[in-house]
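[recover] target loaded
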């Protein structure tokens, strides 16, 4: 019986790739590096922003110092511009409302840095009562390390067998696997369905409504 649904944020609940691309390209330009088309960022994101910057930097420039330099330019820009193009995917708000009304506890586990995670959740889902919203925090390994899931479990005090994890990338499917949870891979996000299946998704959802069906069928 499923009582808690843990959601990834970017690529699962919100389509944020354009703002992530714009902010990263801005930071790259400020430091004299070449930029990338928005579509390329679908494969740069997923492992936290430091890994995003490492992937976006040119070969031979992927040092820790350069990553931190891009980060220092990116964060203040993104904090202002992270809602220029970002929107919830179709049906997401209704899906969250339906789960909430059905008594399912909701939580978010994101590799986006904590400040922006909290800001975006508050902006786009103000009436959804998430029991726990966690982004990437200092000193905590990013997904697919399962610590973020364990922290949500501790905060909600919901038993392991009553939890399901929902995401859009191989990182998410591996996170669920590392935490020994069933997973739903969503096909509208940043990565293709083939990646989700190869990464061991328990279920595949092609629409937001299918998430409700899968969870309530197991509730």
């Amino acid at each position: 019986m499923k009582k808690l649904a843990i959601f990834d944020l970017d690529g699962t609940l919100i389509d944020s790739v354009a703002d992530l691309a714009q902010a990263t390209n801005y930071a790259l330009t400020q430091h004299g590096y070449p930029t990338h088309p928005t579509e390329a960022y679908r494969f740069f994101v997923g492992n936290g922003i430091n890994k995003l910057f490492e992937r976006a930097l040119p070969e031979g420039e992927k040092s820790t110092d350069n990553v931190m330099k891009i980060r220092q330019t990116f964060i203040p820009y993104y904090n202002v511009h992270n809602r220029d193009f970002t929107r919830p995917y179709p049906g997401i708000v209704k899906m969250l409302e339906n789960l909430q009304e059905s008594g399912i506890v909701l939580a978010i586990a994101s590799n986006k840095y904590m400040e922006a995670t909290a800001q975006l959740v508050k902006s786009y889902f103000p009436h959804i009562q998430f029991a726990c919203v966690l982004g990437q925090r200092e000193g905590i390994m990013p997904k697919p390390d399962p610590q973020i899931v364990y922290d949500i479990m501790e905060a909600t005090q919901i038993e392991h067998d009553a939890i399901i994890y929902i995401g859009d990338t191989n990182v998410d499917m591996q996170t669920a696997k590392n935490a020994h949870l069933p997973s739903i891979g969503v096909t509208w996000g940043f990565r293709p369905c083939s990646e989700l299946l190869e990464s061991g998704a328990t279920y595949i959802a092609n629409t937001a409504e299918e998430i409700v069906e899968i969870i309530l069928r197991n509730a």
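[recover] notes: The CA atoms of residues 105 and 216 lie 12 Å apart.
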